Structures are given as C-alpha cells and as structure tokens.
Amino acid sequence: MSLHANDIRPVRDDIGYCWTMDCMKKFITYLESHDQTKEIPLPIIAGITPHDDFLYAGTIYYPLYKNIKAKEAVIFGVTHKTVRDAINDPQNILILDEFTAWKGLNGTITVSPLREYIKSHLNKSDFMVSNKAHELEHSIEGQLPFLHYFNQNIRITPIMVTGMPFEKMEEISTRLAEVITAYIHENNLKPGKDIVFLFSADANHYGKDFNNTPFGEDEKAHEKGINQDLNWVKSYLTGKVDNEKIRILTTKLWGATYRDYGSTYWCGKYSIPFGMLTTMKIMHSLNIPLQGTLLQFGDTYSGGVLPVTKCGIGTTAPFSLKHWVSFFSVAYH
User: Fold this and answer.
1) What's the pTM value of the predicted model, to 2 decimals?
2) Domains of the chain: total
3) Cα–Cα distance, 271 to 274 (Å, whole number)
4) Which CATH number characterizes residue 65's domain?
5) Strand ranges inside 221-323, DSSP E
6) CA-CA distance, 221 to 83, in Å (whole number)?
7) 61-94 pLDDT, tens per residue?
C-alpha cells in the first residue's frame, strides 16, 4: 500500500543532515577511515547520541551507530525552544506523533507498532499527540540517516520529552517502562538484538550567542567548559547505571530549578535523564544490568568542520569562542 504524503513526516533539516544514500556512503567512507574507537562490548542496548550537524559531529555519531544491530529503535528527543514557543510550551508530558513513516535515505522509515501500543496503554495524562511538534523538532530526525544506513528495515518509535522536574520524570518513566516492558514480553524481544533505546542530546551550548559565559570567552574559558562537560559525562553517564547518578547529573544541569540552566546549557537536560530512567527500569525488570562506555567526545570549536565536500550537506551554525557546542556518544551494554 502506497503512503500519502501527509502520512510521512517530512525532513526538517536538509542542510546539516544527509538524506541520500550516495551522500551517506561517501560520508561513512570518510568516517570509517578516521575511526579510532576501541572495540566495545556488544550488543548495544542503549546509547546517547548527538544531533548536531554531521560535518561537526559525524565522528561522534559513527562509533555508536556502526555497532547498533537492533531491528527497532526507541528515540527520546529534545523539545527545543523554537518548538516549545510554537506549541505553547507544554510541560510534564511526552509528545508522540501520528505519522505512518518518516523520511529516510532515498525512502521512508516505518514507525514501530510500539508507538500505538504506548498510546493505548500509557496514562492519557502522560502524553500528547502533535505532528506539528515532531515536524518542527530536528533532534530525532538527526538519528535517522545513520540508523537507516546500517539497517534498511529499521523501525522507530519517536518520543519527544518536554521539561519536567525529576520527580515527574520518575513517575512517567515508571509507567512508560511498564508499558514498553509488556510490549517486549508480548513480542519476545531481546534488548540489543531486537530493540535499542537512544537518547538524542548535544551537551553545552557555550558563548555570547547563547547568553552562557560563566567562565568567560577566551581559550581558558573554552577549556574549563569542555573539562566540566567531560567530567560530568565520565562521572554520571559511564560505568554502572543507577538512579542516584542520574539524579545528581540532573541537578547539575538544571541549576536552582529544573527550568534553569545553571552553569551549563545542555539541550539534553530532559531527554537524557528521562530516557535513561525509562531504560534502566525496563532493564531492571528484565534483570539486565547496564554499563556505559564513552565512545567519543568533541566540540565544534575544537574539531571544526569535517573535510567532506560535494556531499550535499553543510553546517547550520558557526563556531567560535562566542559560539560552540560540545557533544558525545555513550554506548550502554
């Protein structure tokens, strides 16, 4: 059965991300030749992944996605400010969509039946449905070219996470984990082999352009900001996953309240803790412990633009000491 155009979620960012197989092959060839990531335990059950432009963060995406073998992916995305402003800033809720498929590489990516299963079994007060929100948000679509390249039959469950305090995250993630666990049992799925959980997040957005300069605006400030991010990743997002580490990280990301940013500006300050809480609870019910391994860490100012040209992709933002973004990838196994 052919899909109507309205059934397919259109591409939001056709500059920073690649949407043709030829472009992606050229890009992956470059990334393969420059990959220095050590081997990690498999299978990958979950992962934190950036959503910045491929020419900035390609070497960060690659070591995670080349090792994902699952047949479907649950993707926890950000609800960026531009999207929040356009949809009246909903809070304390998840956002699902109604699209039958999303644009992929030279084709479409099917939405998993899990999405409708969630709608049928999760408390109605825990989520809203908005195609508009998902059309405007780019943090989930940024994962699709890599997913689709390595698995042409991948299915996805897109979930946008809005702002909510940690206590609310605990409540909703518990209920969502119960629903997804039931789906896993009913379909005899194995984490890592059949289903993977991804948390889309860039880390610090630093500089005058972001009104975020707690350390200043020189080289030393950049170094302090990078070291802070890297220390938090290593301390709270690697090794054994537990609730306390997630809670501590959120307090550092939020400042005085969950609506503040403190001394950092991670756009993953909701998607990471919510996705990790949900996944941790699912794995706990399946008696599967989670261990996190840092794959790659970088930032736009240090790395600049990858030298892949005539590939149909570019950059959507500048980089300088007044405007830089850090990002990282972590695999959970």
Assistant:
1) 0.97
2) 1
3) 5
4) 3.40.830.10
5) 239-240, 291-299
6) 30
7) 999 999 999 999 999 999 999 999 999 999 999 9
